[in-house]
Amino acid sequence: MPYLVRPLFSGPLDLVGDVHGGLSHLQSLFEKLGYDPQGHHPSRRLIFLGDLVDRGEDSPGVIQLVRSLVNENRAQCVMGNHELNLLLGKERPGNEWFYGKEQFLEDPHQLLPQKLLPSSLQSQVEQFFNSLPLALEREDLRVVHACWDSSSINELREQKEAAVFLRERNKINKAPILATNDRTLRALIDQNENPVKVVTSGLEQAHKGPPFVAGGKQRKTTRVAWWAGYKDPQAVVFGHYWRSRTPLERLSVVPSPFGDEDNPFSPLGPLNNAWCVDFSNGHRAEEALRRPERRDTVACLAALRWPEQEFVLA
Ligand SMILES: [Mn+2]
Q1: Residue 51 Cα, ligand 1 centroid: separation in angstroms?
Q2: How confident is the model at residue 58 (pLDDT cuts 50, 70, 90)?
């Protein structure tokens, strides 16, 4: 089994943000990018930024499509926190499909239409997730789901299995966590001192303000805008952070690390070489149910073309 940090494809790329089960959105993105319905292009290849699954209409279908592209060497995909949670056997709001169960909004009559996974296919899906790298790199470009933190990435260069290494670090972190009664500090050690968690769900800091609920858990910590301190010459492309194409109409309850005034299509960081490509497709099915009167959803699926540095939305 190869290491968790691997070489990124050479040549022109289309880097696809968090799909979250939106198979039809992925197909329309392919069309806009000039790929055929199978995801083939005569001169370009696809990079998926992780969080292929959960919340959308057809997570099994997205996995099937991306897995065959990866096998044909036409795509690469890094692991997101949603794949990681399933590998760890965690049940979270949005991943009911994997366990063969329906997902409802708070109102139990609001069923989110989703394809469910037959239990006979669970181990196949786990096998695919377990084969994914955590980061990809080449001379001019780096790819990760949530956060390019050099010391975390360097530790991952010597590791081969994300779930195994995550559990190893959980054990090591147990003593410092038990040594404090401060619940915020405990949460920060648990997250920031675990390289697998850092790269798949980002660095965190103490949250100033009332606690909020996200992913079914009460949070006392919030996401760090790590790209604001990213000064490496290599460009970095990532997903995870729920951008909105219209920043004043954010959908996520998670406090935004971008601020209200950001232009979501301009590069981030002091060197203008960090790019977030997650445009909240994970909120799309819920948004369509909650606001049926709107023709267009705020949430969408995005790709960043490289080297063109152009966004394409679907
Ligand atoms: Mn994510």
Answers
A1: 6
A2: very high
